[in-house]
Design brief:
Blueprint: H1 2-16, H2 37-49, E1 60-66, E2 72-79, H3 85-106, E3 112-119
Parallel strand pairs: 2-3
Antiparallel strand pairs: 1-2
């Protein structure tokens, strides 16, 4: 009985294992990746408050990027030259307020926001 169980076990292993010539590979998308807190913050802020594209109705584009210092998220604001300063000020203030709420909700008092604002060199849309 014992030898029968050993033979059955060996046969099961041989049947369930891949052919020796084939390597078991998984697509790269299945590889484990654990983002850092700063990367996660940039992703969440982008999802919640980012504006990755610009339209005639909304001539402001906002993207969030993790910085290499481990504490700063860059908020990059691009806009057309004809956007009024008051509109940009309101946008900036609402982003800072949203960031502060996000930081408090996560309990990440170490997290910092850097805003980089630049007008585009061309009008939108063409």
């Amino acid at each position: 009985m014992r030898s029968f169980l050993c033979v059955t076990f060996v046969v099961a292993i041989l049947l369930l294992s891949p052919p020796s010539g084939e390597a078991q590979t998984r697509p790269p998308g299945f590889e484990i990746y654990q983002p850092t807190k700063i990367e996660w913050a940039a992703v969440e802020l982008q999802a919640l408050h980012g504006k990755p594209s610009m339209t005639a109705e909304s001539p402001i584009m906002i993207t969030f990027h993790a910085q290499n210092d481990g504490v700063t998220v860059l908020c990059f604001i691009q806009h057309t030259a004809d956007v009024q300063a008051a509109v940009l000020k309101i946008e900036r203030e609402s982003l800072v307020q949203a960031f502060d709420i996000y930081r408090r909700s996560r309990g990440w008092s170490w997290l910092r926001l850097q805003i980089d604002e630049r007008p585009l060199n061309r009008s939108w849309p063409r």
